[in-house]
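Notes continue from the previous slide.

Worked example: a multi-chain complex. Inputs as given:
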Amino acid sequence: QVQLVESGGGVVQPGGSLRVSCAASGFTFSSYGMHWVRQAPGKGLEWVAFIRYDGSNKYYADSVKGRLTISRDNSKNMVYLQMNSLRGDDTGVYYCVKCTGGEVLLNDFDYWGQGTLVTVSS
Amino acid sequence: AVRMTQSPSSLSASIGDRVTITCRASQDIGSYLAWYQQKPGKVPNLLISGASTVQSGVPLRFSGSGSGTDFTLTISSLQSEDFATYYCLQSYNNPLTFGGGTKVEIK
């Protein structure tokens, strides 16, 4: 069965950096695009970033462009989110999400990890 | 970015009620609209894709309709397990955008 397990969350000071990871299993990882979606405490869902199945294209929400970087390692079935210049409004649960296809558009999210909490606070 | 306006933001309903949630896109997104259900403390679950395709395992009381800019999620007869927050998501245009959510509560 499909499993997505995030790790790496924690408390970081404003302006700091953090890398969260997602270990994928149960499907042909190299055939699917992957997303990161976040949810601030008590708030709604916000799409953050996407990486194409082969890593060749990456897309970002305007709110994170230039600060957060998505990457993947298909040999390890891993997807990462490097977060730099973190701000208070980056606080939230970060979900790793499998795309139903290889491209960012015209597809859906079918499997979600349990999420990892990132707290940006001094 | 395509703005997704979901309404209402919350509603109170009784078991057996018919519930309708709407999502309006700021521009034409064809049928590239999905609905997700999120129960408290749980991860979101895909209910409907392509505006109207109910996912396997989702009860038939859930249905979706619409195209272009106006979309609807309908629960024909609300059950206790349906109390949750519902989100729409457009995947037609980059960046992907969610609606603000509709919290369905018990009356």
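Summary box: Chain A touches chain B through 23 residues (CB under 8 Å). The radius of gyration of chain A is 13 Å.
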